[in-house]
Amino acid sequence: MYGDPQTVPITESESKKPVNPYGETKLFVERMLHWHGIAHGLKWVAPRYFNAAGADPEGELGEEHEPETHLIPAAFEAVLGKRPQLEVYGTDYPTPDGTAVRDYIHVFDLGRAHIAALDYLRDGGESTAVNLGTGVGQSVLDVVRAVAAASGRDVPHVLRPRRAGDPPKLVADPSMAQRVLGWTAEFRDIGRIVETAWAWHQRPVMS
């Protein structure tokens, strides 16, 4: 919902100027919560996810759907021969290696944040929205290297032009979540996040 932010890391007070339908719908839902709260007294917490990633560290749950559009599982599909190659969109962004930078937050940490938000509301907390991220940015090529390291295999990939609606850099300032919910991300290293996803993709498939 932040669109192309003026300041990175992004705080909750950053202007809300979505640049794609996905961001617009997220902002619309927060507005619905706001007005429902005024009309009916609903207390709410809106968790503003950055890039959800990884899999259950115990290997029981992971991400698998068709078609796959998310970077990390798509990279593993390329490694495993389930797609010819990974397509990397944009190599001319104003970032260290020219590819887009994102904040990857592990699903385990997102689950912890939801529990913390429910506890906060149960204890009488006021309605609020909080960023959920690590505060650490990783480029697309950083992720490609992490996938290669986790799998021990090269990631076939091809470079493509930018896509419309993809900001150069989206990294959270998660300090409000720490202050309000007492939450911080435990998985802050992209290597650890990717390793859990690789373990999921390597699991035995039951017939």
How many domains? Answer: 1
| Global Rg | 18 Å
Helical segment tally?
6
Strand tally is 9
CATH architecture: Alpha-Beta Complex
CATH superfamily: UDP-galactose 4-epimerase, domain 1
**CATH topology assignment:** UDP-galactose 4-epimerase, domain 1
Helical content band: 25-40%
Low-confidence stretches: none
- CATH class type: Alpha Beta
Order of helices and strands: HEEHEEEHEEHEEHH
Which shape, going by the Cα principal axes?
Answer: globular
Strand share of the residues?
Answer: 5-15%
Major sheet attributes: 3 strands, mixed
Class from helix and strand fractions = alpha/beta
Mean pLDDT: 95
What is the topology?
Elements lengths: L20 H20 L4 E5 L1 E3 L17 H9 L6 E4 L11 E2 L1 E3 H16 L5 E5 L5 E2 H12 L5 E4 L8 E2 L4 H7 L8 H12 L6
Parallel strand pairs: 1-6, 2-5, 3-8, 4-9
Antiparallel strand pairs: 4-7
Helix pairs in contact: 2-4, 4-6
Please describe what this structure looks like.
This protein is of the alpha/beta class. It has a single domain (44-201), classed as UDP-galactose 4-epimerase, domain 1. The chain contains 6 helices and 9 strands, in the order αββαβββαββαββαα. The protein has helices at residues 21-40, 71-79, 107-122, 140-151, 175-181, 190-201; strands at 45-49, 51-53, 86-89, 101-102, 104-106, 128-132, 138-139, 157-160, 169-170. The strands form 4 sheets. Strands 7-4-9 form a 3-stranded mixed β-sheet. α2 (71-79) packs across α4 (140-151). The longest helix is centred in the N-terminal third of the chain and has 20 residues, at 21-40. The model has no long low-confidence stretch (mean pLDDT 95).
